[in-house]
Amino acid sequence: MTARAYDPIIAIATAPGRGGIGVIRISGRDLAALGERLFTTSLKPRHAHYLGFNDENGTAIDKGIALFFPGPHSYTGEDVLELQGHGGPAVLRRLLTHCLETGKDMGLRLAEPGEFTQRAFLNSRMDLAQAEAVADLIEASSDAAARSAMASLSGAFSQQVHALDDQVVHLRMLVEATLDFPEEEIDFLEKYQARETLASLQQDLDKILAQAQQGQILREGLHVVLAGQPNVGKSSLLNALAGDEVAIVTPIAGTTRDRVIQQIHIEGVPLHIIDTAGLRETEDTVESIGIARSWAEIEKANVVLHLQDIRAQNDKLDSAIAERLPKHIPVLKVFNKLDLAQGELEQTASAPEQTESQNVLFISAKTGEGLDALRTRLLDIAGWSPATESPWLARERHVRALEEAAIHLQQAADHAAHNDQVLDLFAEELRLAHEALCSITGQFTSDDLLGEIFSSFCIGK
Ligand code: GDP
Ligand code: ZN
Questions:
Q1: Most confident of 123-127, 227-231, 269-273, 350-354
Q2: What's the total number of domains in the chain?
C-alpha cells in the first residue's frame, strides 16, 4: 500500500506547558531528505539517534533523540520523523520554527488538530471508529473509559460491526443473485432461509446496539440536574457527591443563581451534575433568569433529582414543580435532611422504610446517609447496566448508525413476513442497513463528517 501524497505537516505532539520531554512530530513524504538536512546525517529507520538539534548557523537549540519511521509502517502510513527534546515551551518553539524553516521548500506546514490521525485513517492504518477511539483514549477521565477506549482502538467494536455487516452483505448477495434469475424469486426466502437469517441478524444487532448505548454513556457521561426549591440542600448534595466545595452553600434562600457543574464518577461513569437556581416564584430579575436557565437545564438532563425537604412533604410548590418536570426524563424524588426528621418520622406514615419506592429516596446531604443508595439508583434509572458493561466506547454517531441499520433490517423483515413479491425492496433495505453499518467504520464518509470528527482532536495527534 502506498500512502497518498499530502503536504508534510509538523506539530508539537506533547501537551503545552513544561515537561521532562517534548516531542515534535513530522509526517509526509521523503522525510529521509528532511532528516539529512536537519541533522547532516542520514537517519536509520526505527533507530534512536542521540543528536544535537542545531539551527542553520550550527548553534545548539537542544540535544535529544531523533527517530525516523519510513512509511507505510508508521502511525500515519507516511514517513514520520520524531524529535524528542526537552519539554519546555520556548525550546520546543525554537525547534519547531527551525524545522519549518528547513522544510519550507518542500511545503512543510503546521498540522491541523487531529491531522496525523486523519492521515492514518485516510491511509487505512485504522478505520474511523478506531481513529475516534484515539481521541477518546486521550479524553478518557476514568479507568473504565480509558480501558474501553483502548478496546475500541484495538478494533473490538469495529470487528463486531464488520462481522454483522458481513452477514448483511452475504444475504444481500443472495438476493441480488436471485433478482438476476426472476424464475427463482418465489422460493428465495425459503431456499436460503432468509427470514431466519434475518432474525438472527437482528438479534446480533440489538446486542451490539445495547452495548453501544452503554459505551456512549461511558464516553459522554450523564447529565444530572439537581432541581428543587431554594434551601432544600441542592448545593450541599452536590458537594457531598463531589467530595469538595464547588457550589456556594449558604443558609439564605436563592443563593445559587447561576448553574454550577461538577463532574464526578460513579463506577467509572462520568456524571455531569448541574446545580440549578432554586425553583420558586420570584420578583428578583437576576434570580428569575437563573430560574429560567434551571428549566432549560432540566430539559436537557438525562436524569433529574427533584430534591425536597423531608419536613415539608406534600408541599404545594413541590407538587407544582413535579407537575412541570418533563415526562420523558426520569426523575428521582429525593427527600433531604433526613437527620433533622428522624425522630419525628418514626411515628408517621412517611417513615423511609414504608414509602421508599423505586423513585423515591431519603437522604441526608449533611451526614451522608442514603447517598450510596442514591448513587446506585441514579445510574440505574439513567439506563446504565453494569452487567452489560461495554468493553468498548461508543459515540452518539455510532448509536444512531446502529439504530438506523436496525430500522432497515426490520423493514426487510416486514417485507419478508408479508411474503411480498418484492425482493427488490428487501434487497434495498439490506443495502441501506449495510450503508449505515459502514458509516461507523468509515467506508462511506463525507468531508464534513471527517472535519467534524478530527477537528475535535488535539493538535499533534
Ligand atoms: P440549596 O439552596 O437547595 O442549594 O440548599 P443549600 O445546599 O444551600 O442548603 C441550605 C441549608 O440547608 C444550608 O444551611 C445547609 O447546611 C442545610 N442543609 C442541607 N442539607 C442538609 C441536611 O441533610 N441536613 C441538615 N441538617 N441541613 C442541611
Ligand atoms: Zn444552592
A1: 123-127
A2: 3
Question: What residues line ligand 1, using a CB cutoff of 6 Å?
Answer: 228, 230-236, 249-251, 256, 278, 336-337, 339-340, 364-366
Dig out the grid coordinates for 175 from the structure. Answer: 438476493
| CA 232 to ligand 2 center in whole angstroms | 8
Q: Which of 74, 90, 125 is the last residue in one of the domains?
A: 125
* Complex confidence, ipTM: 0.98
Strand ranges of the sheet holding 303-309, from the earlier edge strand across to the other edge: 260-266, 269-275, 222-228, 303-309, 331-336, 360-362
Chain segment 154-213, per-residue pLDDT in tens: 999 999 999 999 999 999 888 888 777 766 555 777 777 888 999 999 999 999 999 999
55 and 160 belong to one structural domain: no
Q: How much distance in Å is there from the Cα of 217 to the middle of ligand 2? A: 27
Q: Of 9-18, 349-358, 428-437, which range is least confident?
A: 349-358
Residue appearing with cell numbers 485513517? 121
* Cα 315 to Cα 111: distance, rounded to the nearest angstrom: 59
Q: SS3 of 325, please?
A: coil
Q: Domain containing 75 — which CATH number?
A: 3.30.1360.120
Which of 226, 236, 276, 366 most suits a substitution to test ligand 1, by most atoms within 8 Å of the C-beta?
A: 236
| Ligand 2 geometric centre to CA of 348 (Å) | 29
pTM: 0.78
Determine whether the annotation assigns residue 286 to a binding site.
no
Both 198 and 229 in one domain: the answer is: no
Closest ligand 1 atom to residue 367 Cα is 23
- Which cell goes with 410? 426490520
Residue 80: all three cell numbers together: 514520520
Q: Which of the listed residues 238, 249, 258 should we mutate to test ligand 1's pocket, taking the one with most ligand atoms within 8 A of CB?
A: 249
Q: Which domain holds residue 279?
A: 223-385
Nearest CA to ligand 1 atom 14: 251
The arithmetic mean of pLDDT across residues 249-270, rounded, is 68
pLDDT tens digit sequence for 390-413: 678 899 999 999 999 999 999 999
Query: Using one digit for the tens of pLDDT, what is the confidence trace for 90-136?
Result: 999 999 999 999 999 999 999 999 999 999 999 999 999 999 999 99
Q: Around Cβ 234, how many Cβ atoms within 10 Å?
A: 31
CA of 309 to the centre of ligand 1 (A): 9
What pLDDT is stored for residue 321 in this prediction? Answer: 86
Separation CA 315–CA 310 (nearest Å) = 10
Q: Is 275 marked as binding a ligand? A: yes
**How is residue 365 written as a grid cell?**
446531604
pLDDT of residue 317: 86
Nearest CA owner, ligand 1 atom 18: 233
- Residue 25 is assigned to a ligand binding site: yes
Domain presence at residue 133:
no
Is 190 annotated among the ligand-binding residues? no
Counting from 1 in the atom list of ligand 1, the atom nearest the Cα of 307 is: 3
